[in-house]
Amino acid sequence: MVVFMAEVIDGANAVLGRLSSIAASKALAGEKVWIVNAEKIVVSGKKENTIAKLQHRIDLKAKGNPRKGPKYSRAPHKIVWEAIEGMMPNSRRGEKAIKNVRVFIGVPGELKGKEKEIKKLEFAEKKFKAKSMTIGELSEHFGMKF
What SS3 class is residue 35? Predict the structure, then answer.
């Protein structure tokens, strides 16, 4: 039997910014944080604006050689991980803390059948009613298949 020393958070219906700040603060406190169902996390705002922001970010290329990049991922778990990483301080403390964060698409095999260990956030209990889209929809728009 595997014993988990990490706090497992369900990302379904959670707002990306709120979830990221909670995960970042727990990681900075030294806790290990696993986030499951990354494709179901909600990004608030109009779909057109959200798509345009990510498209602009993806279109950025180095002036000299576009293959060198910056390269931004279209995968849901990487988008969430980058949001959490952006909330960490730019120091060794932040580098250590981001190593405590893992993000998964769906529920990993290690947690199948162990729903009691997966914590749902209070603000994610109800469906988000404002204009929004999920990270899964955003990734699919840019050609990601998962």
Answer: strand
- CATH level 3 topology of 6-141: Ribosomal Protein L13p; Chain: A; (3.90.1180)
Question: For the segment 77-97, what is each residue's pLDDT rounded down to a tens digit?
Answer: 999 999 999 999 999 999 999
Residue spans of alpha helices (H) in 5-130: 16-28, 47-59, 76-86, 92-98
**Closest C-alpha to 87, from 138, 32, 28, 44:** 28
The span from the CA of 5 to the CA of 54, in Å, is 34
Question: Could you tell me the two tokens for 109?
Answer: 């095999």
Domains of the chain, by residue range, sit at 6-141
Q: In this prediction, what percent of the chain has a pLDDT beyond 70?
A: 92
